[in-house]
Amino acid sequence: MQNTIDMVHSIQQLAQQQNLDEVLTQIQHLNAADIALILQALDISVQVSLLHMLENKAEVITFYPLEAQIELAQHLPIQDLAEMIEHMHSDDSVDIVKAVSPIIQKQLYTRLSLSKRIQIRALAAYKEESAGAIMSLDFATLPEGFSIQQGLDYLRESASNPATLYEIYIVNAVRQLQGVISLREMVLAPPDALIQSVMTTELIYAYADDDQESVANKLSHYDFIALPIVDREGCLLGIVTYDDAMDVVNEETTEDFLKASAVSTTTKMSMKTAPILLLYQKRVFWLVFLVFGSLLSGLGIAHYEDIIAANLVLVFFLPLLVGSGGNAGSQSATLMVRALATGDVHFRDWFKLLGREILVALCLGGTMAAAVSLLGYFRGDIMVALVLALSMIGIVMMGCLIGMSLPFILQKLKLDPASASAPLVTSICDAAGVLVYLFIASQLLL
Amino acid sequence: MQNTIDMVHSIQQLAQQQNLDEVLTQIQHLNAADIALILQALDISVQVSLLHMLENKAEVITFYPLEAQIELAQHLPIQDLAEMIEHMHSDDSVDIVKAVSPIIQKQLYTRLSLSKRIQIRALAAYKEESAGAIMSLDFATLPEGFSIQQGLDYLRESASNPATLYEIYIVNAVRQLQGVISLREMVLAPPDALIQSVMTTELIYAYADDDQESVANKLSHYDFIALPIVDREGCLLGIVTYDDAMDVVNEETTEDFLKASAVSTTTKMSMKTAPILLLYQKRVFWLVFLVFGSLLSGLGIAHYEDIIAANLVLVFFLPLLVGSGGNAGSQSATLMVRALATGDVHFRDWFKLLGREILVALCLGGTMAAAVSLLGYFRGDIMVALVLALSMIGIVMMGCLIGMSLPFILQKLKLDPASASAPLVTSICDAAGVLVYLFIASQLLL
Asked: Which residues form a coiled coil (chains A, B) (predicted)?
């Protein structure tokens, strides 16, 4: 992989000299994932020429990111594209076919085999983010009643090229799932044993209309390499494999990350290529919403205008105190959001965690109060130092409690706890912090 | 899985009535992952009794989170614990043995087989977060020169119980890795073909001292199910499987999440059980650091004290304007951190992204300026509205540029871009925002 990155430069030079045969010699023995990495660094026309010459082009293109696959599909000769689609896993091919223009789709369909066309149409019908939309149709089944040896012979003769074989599914005459046996179990079992006596009949599966995230969680809960997907009658429709589940987890994690900084997420986008307007749309709602949220801080300040006018030194420390509450609060919120996402804590733990958080906040607030009251003493006097110390402890405590509670409240309201973003927590803590600070100041300084 | 959660309550009742035989009857046919889920909801003494009776106890315990495994290990009769360790995958067993007290370790060693003791000692020697520390020793090898049928027969006779068999490694007499063949390829190939003619010889592997994150990335780059780990002489030492890689990715993602809210991360911790002092330590550094960072904002305010005294209405809008810059900046930072982490953008893209960010920031700033200047007009006058609008555009632009550049700068300094946390970006943007706002105000209002 590292060597591959080093190769990119020399390959680029060869390509510029139009020495494509030499490029082919150098890359064709590499792993398909590395070939894909190298090709993507070249001009699209060079990629098209090289792919035309590569034998394993269908495998190589599956290692492109989806966006790059789609761009490439628009440039490939239709015959090459059809050949690739024909040999790709069904779940990968349907993503490309769905994304290309209707004209290319039409040209493609006339060149694909009947079985591939049926596969693609079937998969394209499932709604986005469902198990059906990410499942693969390339799995192996065996009928009931075979011996291990008969099963192995049958697989050897009939397994179509791209079928995954980690798990083999035993189905009855109407394709209802009866059992699962791993290839490992088949190889290790005595050849004359009946498959039925070895297979697992305690079946774990998901439905095609299940949410993709729940399917990924199920796969990871059981440490499965593949999970069978069935319809409501228990008939086997497809499988979701561990690598697809990993992609789903990555996607959902990115969503959580973006939510954490108040960026709306609905579709995938690349920072390099997404339209400016889309980036604007994804960010503007929360920013404007928070502007109005910050008005609360302003109202707090307006209410205490007199005490500020009389003690302008208070303004000097305003950003510092208010900011500290926001910082402590967004730490708490992130810790809770992550702990909820990984299943470390549940709603019922709220009360217990509240007690712990109060202790942590007290320690944090105390340390920060010591730091800030020293500053206050030098800049103001002993009373200012006292106001700052008390305010800091109060503000940090409140920030922590708001930050840790908000994700739980959101979850209780059936909203995503990850929406307790740093900016949202910061804005709420800001307003609360202004009130705490100026209230304490008005009590002690007037 | 859902049904399992529903089962927990009825099982808890049975356990309270000391009806453990009935509990056993109800759970023993379940998947080990589900048994582990149910057991963890019971008292530790009940868990110990039930595990004693379960045949697949070694498999069940691997589905416990590591912390729970370790707690359980302290309570199990030493004979049960030894039996479990003996039958667990080597990478799982070493984690437990390393964590239990020296007394239990000593008692354990006398009860384990020689081969298991050697395995555990070998794995325990690798340093934390290296490939060696997460690799498994339960893989299958074949000598050179076998035919497919000979190979399958050999595996059937010799494969030890826990060995993973997705990939079989071909080694020479000194255990140097020569080739890889998947079980699938072996089953589908003609039985009399030589393994050497079918196996992959373009080897992809990692070294035992490689960082675990790079190994996980390699596995995911190649979509491998297992990656061989070799020493510097090319001798096969172990394998890292996809599920271990998934755990590593989860761990690193959590680290990034916590960094994003300025929580230091070095060790794993549970929000429910981590000592208060540890939680304090992980959070206090950044909070105090940011207190001093916020002083910059204070200095800005002190510099413009006169203009504030003359126009107290400016203070009303201070949190709002300054907060908006921080919010926009932390959005930009998160988008960049995530794009860098997923490989969507690289350092060389900085300049191009800068141009795009300026456009987005201009649109965002414009929208927010419209909102805030309306408020300014009602609260102050047309000049205040103008100051607010110009300040908002300037502050949002600056926040976005700081937020998007900081992750790149950190990467260039060989620091983790994820350290560009929301609180850090917010503090920098706060100080910059104060200066922009009060500078513009001083130019227009005096």
From this structure: none
